[in-house]
Design brief:
There is one protein chain. The protein is of the alpha/beta class. The protein folds into three domains: about 350 residues, 3-Layer(aba) Sandwich (Rossmann fold), CATH 3.40.50.970; about 180 residues, 3-Layer(aba) Sandwich (Rossmann fold), CATH 3.40.50; about 130 residues, 3-Layer(aba) Sandwich (Rossmann fold), CATH 3.40.50. The protein is about 40% helix and about 15% strand. The chain has 25 helices and 24 strands. The chain has a seven-stranded parallel sheet with strand order 1-8-9-5-4-2-3, sandwiched between helices. A six-stranded parallel sheet has the order 14-13-15-16-18-17, sandwiched between helices. It has a five-stranded mixed sheet with strand order 20-22-21-23-24, with helices on both faces. Helix 21 links the parallel strand 21 and strand 22. The relative contact order is 0.09.
Length: about 725
C-alpha cells in the first residue's frame, strides 16, 4: 500500500486573538491615538456619504465604514518612511497614514485638532469632490488618493492593480537598506486576481519586505466569499507561497495592531513578505449610503450582528473601563470630529443660489481650471536641458557593429554611470544575455541590479512601475516578446501609463520597457506582433523604434533620461545586422521628436520605422521611384517629428505609410488620419498604406510571409502611386 505523510508549509499560519489582559497592557496613548483616528475617519466617511446623497460627489463614494479597525490598527504599527497603497475603498487607509504622518505621536482626543490635521481632512475631502485643492487637483477623486510625502503611494480603482506596484516600493526599501517596509491593502476579490497571486510568488522568491493586508469584508459587491472560493479563510493563500500569515479579527483594532507589529518586525528582520487577513465588514453597499440589505443580498440580522462588534464601540468600552477616557469625554471628542467636518465643508461648499433651504453647491472657485485637463499627461522634457545631443550628421567618426551588440553595450555604459538603473525580465540574467544576447555581460558586472524574474509579466512590470513611482530607481523592464504586453495590460496602461496624469501631473514615471518584435521568425500568432499601434493610443507612453545601431544608442540614452515611461521596440531581424554605431562616445542622446530622412526625393513621402525602413529603401531602389523616405524613430503622438513630415508632404504632395504588422493593430491608421487633418490642402491623393494582412502571422513559413508586408508589397504600391505620371 502507498504510504502517506502529511505535509506542512514552511511558513506559519496562525489565528491571532487578544484578551482583556492585552487591552490592559496597551499603552493609554496608543489607545487614545486609535480612538482619535477611528472617530475622525468614521465621521469623515459619514460626511462623504452625506455629500454623495446631495449629489456633491461626482462618481462613486466607496465607504469604509465598519472597516476602520483594520486600517488604523495596522498603520499605527508603521513609520512615516513605510509606504502603503490600497484599493478603490481606501479612504480609511489613506487617512490613517496621512494622519499618522502629521501627528506621529498620536492625536489627543481631548485637544483641538492641529492645523496639519485640518489640512489633511480638507485636502482629502476636496480630492474626493474633484476639487483643485485636492491632493491630485481633483483628478484622482475617491478612488485615487496619493500623498507620497506621507508614504501613501496611491489607492487604485483596478481590483488587485496596486499590488504589484507595492512590490516595487518594497524592493526600493530593501535596496536602500532603510529598514522600511511596504503594505498593500486589498480585499477578498483581489486575492483571487492573477496580478496578486503573481506578486505573492515574486515577493516571496525575492524576500521583499511587503505585507499583503487582506481586508476580508466577505462581499465583492454582492457575491460572497463562500461563492468565490473553496477556501474562505483567505490567509490560507500565504503559506502556499512561502509567506508567513496571520488571521485576525479586524473589528478588534488592538488585535490588528498587535498582529501587524509581529508582521512588521518579521519584515524588518529580513524574513520576507507577510500576509495579514483582517476579518471586517462594510456596513453599506458597495457604493453609496444604503446597507446591503436594501439590495437583498444581506439580511438585517447579519448586519446587526456585525455592528454589535463595531471597532469604535469595542474601543470605547475599554477606554472607559480603564479610566482613560470617560463616556462624556468620548462624546466631546466625537462632537469635535463632527464640528471639524462641518467646518471643512464650509470651506468647500456654499448655499445653492435660488435653491431650497439647506441645498448646497461646490464653491465655484474650488473647481480646477478646465485648461488643466491635459496638463501632465507627459512631462515637459525639462530633464533634457543642457544634455548633449547628436545625430549621425554631427557625431563624427562611427564604427561598424552588430545591432544587438549596441543594445548590450549602451546598457552597460548607462548602468556604469547611473546606479539607479535596474534591469529585469525573464532570463535576462542567463543564456549569455537573455534569449538574444541583448543583456550580455550585465549580470556579471551588476549582479544586484540585473534581476531574472519568474514568468509573471503582471507582477514584474508592476514592480517596475512601483520602482519608477518610488523615484529612487530607473527600471528597465524587458518583455521577451511584445505580445506579452496583453498579459500585463493593466500594469502598462491603467497603472504606469496613467499614473503621472491621474495623480496630478507632477510626479515622473521613469520606466523603460524593452519589447521584441519577432515577425518573420516562425513564432506564430502569439509571439510576433508590432505593438506600436496599440501603445500610440495610450497617452502616457513615449515610443521609440530604432533601425540602426547608432540610433539605438542615442534613443536608449534619451529613453533612460526621460521622466516618462518609454517603450523601446527592438526587431529581431535587426539584431544580427551590422551598421554604423558610435566610436568611443556612448553618451549622446538623440533629440526627442527628431525623425531621420534616410533618402530625399520629390515623388512621394514614405513614412516608416524599425526593420521596415530597410525594406522600404530596397523597394525604392528596385522601382526607381524618387521617394523621400523618413524613418520616424519617435512614434508617440507627443514626440513624432511633425515638422519633418510636414515639410516633406508640402514638397511631394503624396504620402505612403509602410509598416510590417497586421492591419488591425496598425500604427499607420491613426497617423494617416492625423496627416489628413494637418495637410489636407497639400495632398494630391489620400494617404496610402502598406500593412500586413488581417490575420496575425502563422507558424507556416508560407502563411507567415503572406501575413506580413515586405519589399514586394512596398514596391507594388510605390509603382501604383507613381503610375499617374513621371514624378521622378
Amino acid at each position: 500500500m502507498p504510504e502517506r505523510r502529511p505535509l506542512t508549509p514552511d511558513q506559519p499560519w496562525v489565528e491571532f486573538t487578544v484578551t482583556d489582559a492585552d487591552w490592559d497592557a496597551a499603552a493609554p496613548e496608543l489607545l487614545t491615538s486609535m480612538y482619535s483616528q477611528l472617530i475622525l475617519i468614521r465621521t469623515f466617511e459619514q460626511y462623504v456619504l452625506q455629500l454623495a446623497a446631495e449629489g456633491l460627489v461626482h462618481g462613486p463614494a466607496h465607504s469604509s465604514i465598519g472597516q476602520e479597525g483594520g486600517a488604523v490598527g495596522s498603520i499605527l504599527a508603521l513609520r512615516t518612511g513605510d509606504t502603503v497603497n490600497g484599493s478603490h475603498r481606501g479612504h480609511h487607509q489613506f487617512l490613517a497614514k496621512a494622519l499618522a504622518h502629521v501627528e506621529p505621536k498620536g492625536i489627543d482626543p481631548t485637544a483641538d485638532y492641529s492645523p496639519e490635521v485640518r489640512d489633511v481632512v480638507l485636502r482629502t475631502l476636496a480630492e474626493i469632490c474633484g476639487l483643485d485643492r485636492g491632493w491630485s487637483h481633483g483628478r484622482g477623486g475617491s478612488m485615487h488618493l496619493q500623498w507620497k510625502q506621507a508614504g501613501a503611494i496611491g489607492t487604485n480603482a483596478i481590483v488587485g492593480g496596486g499590488v504589484p506596484l507595492a512590490a516595487g516600493s518594497a524592493w526600493a526599501h530593501r535596496r536602500a537598506d532603510t529598514g522600511a517596509v511596504a503594505v498593500t491593502y486589498f480585499g477578498d476579490g483581489a486575492i483571487n486576481i492573477g496580478s496578486t497571486l503573481e506578486t505573492f510568488n515574486l515577493a516571496a522568491a525575492w524576500r521583499l519586505p511587503l505585507c499583503f493586508f487582506v481586508e476580508n469584508n466577505h462581499y465583492a459587491v454582492s457575491t460572497t466569499v463562500d461563492e468565490s472560493t473553496a477556501e474562505p479563510r483567505l490567509s490560507a493563500r500565504g503559506p502556499g507561497f512561502g509567506i508567513r500569515s496571520w488571521r485576525v479579527d479586524g473589528m478588534n483594532v488592538l488585535a490588528v495592531h498587535l498582529a501587524m507589529r509581529e508582521a512588521v518586525e518579521a519584515m524588518r528582520a529580513g524574513d520576507g513578505p507577510t500576509l495579514v487577513e483582517a476579518d471586517v465588514y462594510r456596513y453599506y453597499h458597495q457604493n453609496g449610503p444604503f446597507p446591503g440589505s436594501a439590495f437583498r443580498y444581506r439580511t438585517r440580522q447579519e448586519e446587526d450582528s456585525w455592528r454589535a462588534r463595531d471597532p469604535i464601540t469595542q474601543l470605547e468600552g475599554h477606554l472607559a473601563r480603564r479610566g482613560i477616557l470617560s463616556a462624556a469625554q468620548q462624546k466631546v471628542a466625537l462632537d469635535r470630529a463632527n464640528q471639524l467636518l462641518a467646518e471643512t465643508g464650509g470651506v468647500l461648499l456654499e448655499p445653492a443660489p435660488g435653491g431650497k433651504p439647506q441645498e448646497r453647491r461646490i464653491r465655484p472657485a474650488e473647481w480646477p481650471d478646465p485648461a488643466f485637463v491635459d496638463v501632465g499627461v507627459r512631462g515637459d522634457l525639462s530633464e533634457f536641458a543642457g544634455v548633449r545631443t547628436a545625430d549621425r550628421d554631427d557625431y563624427g567618426t562611427t564604427a561598424t557593429m552588430k545591432f544587438v551588440d549596441a543594445v548590450a553595450r549602451v546598457m552597460d555604459r548607462r548602468m556604469a554611470t547611473d546606479e539607479r538603473i535596474v534591469v529585469m525580465g525573464e532570463d535576462v540574467h542567463r543564456l549569455s544575455g537573455g534569449t538574444n544576447g541583448a543583456t550580455r555581460g550585465l549580470k556579471e558586472t551588476y549582479p544586484d541590479r540585473v534581476l531574472g524574474t519568474p514568468i509573471s509579466e503582471n507582477a514584474f512590470a508592476g514592480l517596475g512601475g512601483g520602482l519608477a513611482l518610488d523615484g529612487r530607481y530607473r527600471p528597465v523592464v524587458e518583455f521577451m516578446y511584445a505580445d506579452f504586453m496583453w498579459v500585463a495590460a493593466d500594469q502598462l496602461f491603467n497603472q504606469i501609463g496613467k499614473a503621472r496624469h491621474m495623480f496630478g501631473g507632477d510626479d515622473p514615471v521613469p520606466l523603460v520597457l524593452r519589447a521584441k518584435v519577432a515577425m518573420g521568425t516562425g513564432y506564430g500568432s502569439q509571439h510576433s506582433m508590432d505593438p506600436a499601434g496599440v501603445f500610440a493610443t495610450a497617452a502616457g507612453w513615449r515610443i521609440v523604434a530604432p533601425s540602426t545601431p547608432f540610433d539605438y544608442v542615442g534613443l536608449m540614452n534619451s529613453a533612460l533620461r526621460c521622466q516618462d515611461p518609454v517603450l523601446v521596440l527592438e526587431h529581431v531581424d535587426l539584431y544580427p545586422t551590422t551598421g554604423e554605431g558610435p566610436a568611443g562616445d556612448w553618451d549622446y542622446c538623440l533629440p526627442v521628436g527628431r525623425a531621420a530622412v534616410r533618402r530625399t526625393g520629390s515623388a512621394v513621402t514614405v513614412l516608416t520605422y524599425l526593420a521596415m525602413t530597410g525594406t522600404v529603401l530596397d523597394a525604392v531602389e528596385q522601382t526607381g521611384v524618387d521617394a523621400e523616405v523618413i524613418d520616424l524613430r519617435w512614434l508617440d503622438r507627443a514626440s513624432i517629428d511633425w515638422d519633418t513630415i510636414g515639410a516633406s508632404v508640402r514638397k511631394t504632395n503624396r504620402v505612403l505609410i509602410a509598416e510590417q504588422g497586421a492591419l488591425g493593430t496598425s500604427y499607420g491608421g491613426w497617423l494617416a488620419d492625423e496627416i489628413h487633418r494637418r495637410w489636407f490642402d497639400w495632398l494630391d491623393a489620400p494617404v496610402e498604406r502598406v500593412t500586413g494582412g488581417v490575420a496575425s502571422p502563422s507558424i507556416s513559413k508560407v502563411l507567415e510571409r503572406a501575413a506580413i508586408a515586405g519589399t514586394v508589397d512596398v514596391a507594388r504600391r510605390l509603382t501604383e502611386l507613381n503610375g499617374g505620371g513621371d514624378r521622378g
